[in-house]
Amino acid sequence: MNASAVGENEGAGPFEVTHRLVLSIAIPMTLGFLTTPLIGLTDTAVAGRLGSANALAGMAVGAVLFDLLLGSFNFLRASTTGLVAQAFGRGDRREEQAVYWRSLIIALCCGLAITLLSPFLLSAGLFLMAPSPDVAAVTSTYFLIRALAAPMALGNYALLGFVLGRGQGMTGLMLQAIINGVNIVLSIVLGLWWGWGIAGIAWGAVVGETTGMLAGLVLVVSRFDRRQRPARAEIFERERLKALFSLNRDIMIRTFVLIGAFAIMTRIGSSMGPLVLAANAVLMNIFLVAGYYLDGLANAAEQLVGRAFGANFRPAFDRAVKLTLFWSFGLGIVTTLLFLVFGTDIIGLLTTTESVRAEAAKYLPWAALTAVTGALAFQMDGVFIGATWSGAMRNMMLAAFAGYLLALALFVPLLGNHGLWLALNLFLAFRGLFLALRLPALAARQFAGQSRV
Q1: Secondary structure tally for the chain: helices H, strands E
Q2: Is the separation of the CB atoms in 322 and 330 below 8 Å?
Q3: Where does the pLDDT of residue 9 fall: very low under 50, low under 70, confident under 90, or very high at 90 and above?
Q4: Does residue 269 have a pLDDT over 70?
Q5: What number is the average pLDDT over the span 351-376?
Q6: Would you call 217 helix, strand, or coil by DSSP?
C-alpha cells in the first residue's frame, strides 16, 4: 500500500494479513533501524581510533546514560504507534492527528526538561556508574552535548510513532535515514577529520536529530487532511489525555526497567576493569544490530495488531501474531549465524586496540546468541504495544527483570563476564516467554465471541 495514497476510509474494517503486508512494514523499518546501530558502530570506531581506552570507555558510559534517559521515554513512540494504528483500523482520521499532536507536545516538554536538568542527571549517572576520573571526564563532555538534542530526539519518537501506526514503512525509513545519516557523517567529519574527538561525535548526534525533526514535521504535517483537523479542545480532551498518560506510564516503567537492565550490565562490566568495559561496549553494538533487525518485525506486529484491534477483527490479529513470530525467529537464527562467522572481523573494524579485540572475541558467541534469545521478546513487545496491553507488558517485564537479577547473582560470581552475558540472554528469553504465556487469555477477552483463524 502506498502510504501517501491512503484514502479517507482505507485501512478501516476487516483486512487480510499476508507475508507481503508484514514485510512491507518490517523491511523498510529494519533498514531504517539498521542505520541506528551504524551510529554506534561509527562512534565506537571513531573513539577507538583516538588511541585511548578511556575515550572508548567514557563514550560507552555516556551513551548508556543518554540511552537510559531517552529509552525511558520510548513510551512516546510506542503509545503513539498503538493508538494511531487502532484509530487507523477504525477509520478515525481525526483521532490519528489528535494522537500525534498530544504525543508531540508531551515529547517536546519532556525533552526540554532533560536538557535543563542535564548537569544534575549527569552527576546522578556518574554516581551510578562509578567510572574512573579519566573515564568520567570523557563521559561528561559527551553527555552534556548530547543532552542538547533531547527535545528533538523525543519529538522524533512522536513522528516515528505516527508513521508506524499508519503502516508507512517507507516514510519511517526516510526519517531514520535522515537522522542517522547526518549523525554518522558528522561524527566522522567532526570527530576525526576536524579533530574534535568525543565532542565531535556528540555534536553529530545533535545536528542529526535536529535535521530529522524538521524534515519529519514538513513531511508528516503536510500530508494531514485539513478537513479532519482536530480542534484544540479535542487534542486536550481530559479523558483522552488521561488514557494516554496511563498508557505512557506503564510503557515508561517497562522501558525504564529494560534500559536499566543494560545499565546494570555496564556497571558490572565497569567493575571488572576498563578492558572488559571496552570489550562489552564493542559487543553491545552487535547486540544492537540484532535488536534492530528484530525491531522492524516488532513494528509490523504493532501496526497490524493495533489495526486489527481498531477493526475488531480477530482473524487479522491471529495471523499477524503467527507471521511476525515466524519471521522474527527466522531472522534471529540467520543473524546469529552471521555474527558467529563474521563477528571477529566486525570487532576488528570497531577498534584498533589489540587487547580490546582479543577480550571481545572471548565473549562473541554470547552477543551473537542474543538474536535468537531475543526473537520472541521483540515480537511479543510489538503485539502488546499494538494491543495497548500496557499493564500486562509492565508486569511481565518486572517478572523478567527479577529473573535477570537472580541470574546475575548466580552466574557473575561463578563465570565473571561470561556469566554477565549469560544473564542478559536469559533476561531476553524470560521477557518473551512471560508475555507469550499471557497472550491467549488477553486475546480471548478482547475478541470475545469471535472464532480464531
Answers
A1: 18, 0
A2: no
A3: very low
A4: yes
A5: 86
A6: helix
